[in-house]
Amino acid sequence: MDYSLRHEGYEVIAAGNGLEGIRKARQEAPDLVILDVMLPGMDGFEICHRLRSEPDTAQLPIIMFSAKAQEIDKNTGLKVGADDYLPKPAAPAEIVNRVARLLEKKESGRAAEEKV
Q: Could you tell me what percent of the chain has a pLDDT over 70?
């Protein structure tokens, strides 16, 4: 996944666990987060919930990308605030397309806010 995103010109910042991911989201101010559900220490659902509850990261687009592909997992991810839920395995082109779509949506929302 990293290679495909980098190949398309995206900068990728990785985190090895949930607390590190939250810290990097606060410090690095990424344009988007791709979040696995199964992480050491804190699962992706909790991380997503925490990011949504903080003012600085509340509007951050989040894609949950996980091997947990049952409908209940997808529903839980969306309920805690994910913008999209992509089950593993996924084709690299699908990942890139979803990232591009969410970033476009974010930019169009930002442009609409500036007009108001």
A: 93
Q: Which tokens belong to 9?
A: 């010109």
Q: Return the amino acid letter for 107.
A: E
User: Which pLDDT tens digit goes with each residue over 83-103?
Assistant: 999 998 889 899 999 999 999
Give the pLDDT score at 112: 55
CB 25 within 8 A of CB 51: yes
Query: DSSP labels for 59-108?
Result: T--EEEEES--SHHHHHHHHHTT-SEEEESS--HHHHHHHHHHHHHHHHH
Task: Look at residue 47 and give its three-state secondary structure.
Answer: helix
Name the CA radius of gyration of the chain, rounded: 14
pLDDT digits (tens, 9 = 90+) for 59-79: 999 999 988 888 898 999 999
Residues 6+ apart with CB under 8 A from 97: none
- Domains, the chain, in order of start with CATH, read 2-115 (3.40.50.2300)
Q: Are 92 and 4 in contact (CB under 8 A)?
A: yes
